Amino acid sequence: MPLNNQMKLEFLSIPANISFARATVAAFASQLEFTLSDLEEVKVAVSEAVSNSIIHGYRNAPDRFIKIYAGLTENTLELSIEDDGRGIEDIDRALQPAFTTDPERLGLGFVFMQSFMENLQVDSLPGRGTMVRMSRRVGAGAVQNSREH
């Protein structure tokens, strides 16, 4: 489907920018007919992806950059969140509930992303960074149906 609108955002890898990323993506996504509940779930997914970049990708180094690309089609929000940090050695393992490389974390970031978005794809190379791609269509039925099956 052709894009109706798109944006690119780049910001420093500092915790204060997690809420900035959430709010910016939600404002952009609100151009579609998402419900408030839908937008809250998108915000959680974005928060988790950005947090992963800061905490795991960059090990809290504040001088690195995170990039977000968002595109809107007629009824779908497409997102990619990218860092050029440490990367993920075993993506399948990282996607498992409760897996974490930081014992102070619960390891549920990817679980939330999978629950709140229709599609999730994680591409990563150790030492080269990670790109998380997610999408969600308008109409929570699509996400609810994928949760039921």
Automatic annotation (TrEMBL):
Enzyme type, top EC level: transferase
Gene Ontology terms for molecular function: ATP binding; protein serine kinase activity; protein serine/threonine kinase activity; sigma factor antagonist activity
Domain of life: Bacteria
EC number, as in UniProt: 2.7.11.1
InterPro entries the record matches: Anti-sigma-factor_SerPK (IPR050267), Anti-sigma_F (IPR010194), HATPase_C_sf (IPR036890), HATPase_dom (IPR003594)
SMART domains on file: HATPase_c (SM00387)
Keyword check for Nucleotide-binding: yes
Assigned keywords, A-Z: ATP-binding, Kinase, Nucleotide-binding, Serine/threonine-protein kinase, Sporulation, Transferase
Record's catalysed reaction(s): L-threonyl-[protein] + ATP = O-phospho-L-threonyl-[protein] + ADP + H(+); L-seryl-[protein] + ATP = O-phospho-L-seryl-[protein] + ADP + H(+)
Leader sequence segment: none
Residue intervals of the Histidine kinase/HSP90-like ATPase domain: 37-140
Listed GO biological process terms: asexual sporulation; negative regulation of sporulation resulting in formation of a cellular spore; sporulation resulting in formation of a cellular spore
Function according to Swiss-Prot or TrEMBL: Binds to sigma F and blocks its ability to form an RNA polymerase holoenzyme (E-sigma F). Phosphorylates SpoIIAA on a serine residue. This phosphorylation may enable SpoIIAA to act as an anti-anti-sigma factor that counteracts SpoIIAB and thus releases sigma F from inhibition.
NCBIfam families reported for this sequence: spIIAB (TIGR01925)
Record family assignment: Belongs to the anti-sigma-factor family.
HAMAP family tied to this protein: Anti_sigma_F
Protein known as: Anti-sigma F factor
Gene: spoIIAB
